[in-house]
Amino acid sequence: MTVSDPFSELISTQYGVGPKRTKQLANLEITTVGDLLWFFPRKYVDRRNVVSISKLVLESPSVLEVTVNSIKRRRLQKPGLELVTAELSDDTGTILATWFNRKGLEYILKEGTAIIIYGIPSFRGNNLEISNPDFAVIKNESDKLNFCGIVPQYPSTAGLHIRWFRNFVASQVKKNISFIEETLPKFIIKKRSFVSLSEAIETMHRPFSPEQWKEARRRLAYDEFFTIQITMALRRKKIKDLNTSPIIVPKGKIYKNFRKELDFKLTSSQEKVLSEIFGDTSKNIPMSRLLQGDVGSGKTIVAIGLAAAATDALVQTAILAPTEVLADQLYSQMTKYLSSRGVSVVLLKGALTVSEKRKALASIKNGSALVVVGTQSLLEESVKFKNLGVVIIDEQHRFGVRQRAILLKRKKVPHVLLMSATPIPRTLTMCLFGDLDISVLKEKPVGRKKIETRIIGMAQINVLLDFIAKEVQNSGRIYWICPRVEDQTDSDIASSKSRFEFLKKNLGQIKIGLLHGRMESNEKEETLLKFRKGDMKILVSTTVIEVGVDVPEASVIVIESPEYFGLSQLHQLRGRVGRGERRGVCVLLASLEESALDRLNIMLKTDDGFEISEADLSFRGSGEVDGISQHGATNFRVANLFKDTELLLEAREDAYELVNRDPSLSEMPALIKKIKLNSDEIIGIG
């Protein structure tokens, strides 16, 4: 935005906003006028129905236009508590209104003052009464109009007076609404019968009817989807217009030997995905593909196959992992299948010594390292590839667009494969990855057993400890997962450190280890190695083992306080067991509250990650029926992925139509400004 743009003006420069209110508004993430206009109510109160006292319905929210007959204040027996009581009347009767600890009311509500009030009437003794009603003094007709109607209720923060904030928003909307530029082309507005952007924003802050609000919300929800979809469409077009990527086909010696020497048969899903990948890489156009696969569906083997074929094409493959634990796991797998065939596989991570890192960087630069596995260390400026042809990003949701773009900024754009072990709901996939081609691994390798899942309460912990002891005696290994590393004084949520001490005390003969994200890299590696070897039988951990830890002997996972995890995350954790010949058991050690059980029971009903992710989205993204809340990874202000699927499809269709009509968006300067185009974001994939 330009300096002259009123929406970029600091909120602290506006009339009535001093240092104290500036700080309070900042707590609501409101620092500019633009932030304020796009800060929508969380719900609305319907004050359209003004009734007389004689027609009041008990316990039904009501609006009354009355006159103050009398008002008095008295102290109650409880120290510091005062009660203000006003007798109010209209032509049909009288009613009492009461407020606790409201200073100065007797100076505002003097005898004979005309006011309008909103509250819930009830009988207290023999008196009709409204407790703590909202009110406004009527000096003119506009006072009545401002108080009545459909009144917005905004999210608030400590010390910020609700009525002041409501009036402040209204004044700023009135002052700035004419400066709002339309961001949709006319053909879309006409095609979808949308109200204008300025009308939608104005209506969201003060609708005249539920129908009008729905139309405003529809327009703004669409806009949020459209902003993402137009960015996706532009990014996809820019990538598809490039013709600089290496040609990689599955016909070379290393790839053929890799396939020939596998000691198991690939699933039909894996074969299909490899066919889709090589269909892309057989052209000079850079591949942009997302590989989704449920826990244990065999994504790593697909990645190794692509790396093998890339090696045959004499180009380098970079494999980016979010954690050192996962990087070690991928490096181990790549080495197992490729090093024996003469392929140099290098690991680059923060825990390397100076000499180890120098040696790795040299091999990457001179091209002798054909496969490079690493963490964020791969994104450092010191890493220079000689001929990078493939980028594989595992657990892609842990990396931002700009981070990915660092690996892709080169004259010859590499093929990109993003991998996710977290099945993503269809609507979220369209929203976040609309510029990518999608591959899905639906089958699990032959022999992979279904994991038994049980929900128990703390009352059964002794039974659980007996079960674990027997499992260890039978050569099993156990994960015990907690949401936190350490205890907090204001919470009874389980922590890994306290549970570690508890288990040592109660299972003293069994060797138990502790693993969490705050440990040094070498400590983590040493702990995991002991667990893999069996020197350690129980591993107490946080979600650091969510992905990347593959211990075939692990047979039981206990997840404590599961109500604090998302369903998809629980499914990921559950997938750490049952990966070998032993059957797997997942125990959810829960609070057993009804609200938590409703959600957790889904884990008992299905082991389909895609089904679980859809359920997870429905629980997290249902939102308010009559207001606005933010939803999930997208942080939408208005749109709801679970309820607005049709709008998302429309936005996707329209975005691609617009890019085909006008690839440079030459007639839409306001839209260009809104999506803040830059080359990194367009090339950045996903």
Helix content: 25-40%
Domain count: 4
Structural class: alpha/beta
| Terminal CA distance | 25 Å
CATH architecture designation of the largest domain: 3-Layer(aba) Sandwich
- Any idea what the shape is? globular
Q: Radius of gyration, Cα only, in angstroms?
A: 31 Å
At the first level of CATH, the class of the largest domain is Alpha Beta
Q: Could you tell me the number of beta strands?
A: 23
Q: What is the typical, i.e. mean, pLDDT?
A: 86
The CATH homologous superfamily of the largest domain is termed P-loop containing nucleotide triphosphate hydrolases
CATH fold node name of the largest domain: Rossmann fold
Percentage beta strand = 15-25%
Largest sheet: 8 strands, mixed
Extract low-pLDDT stretches.
Answer: 621-633, 677-686
Our count of helices gives: 25
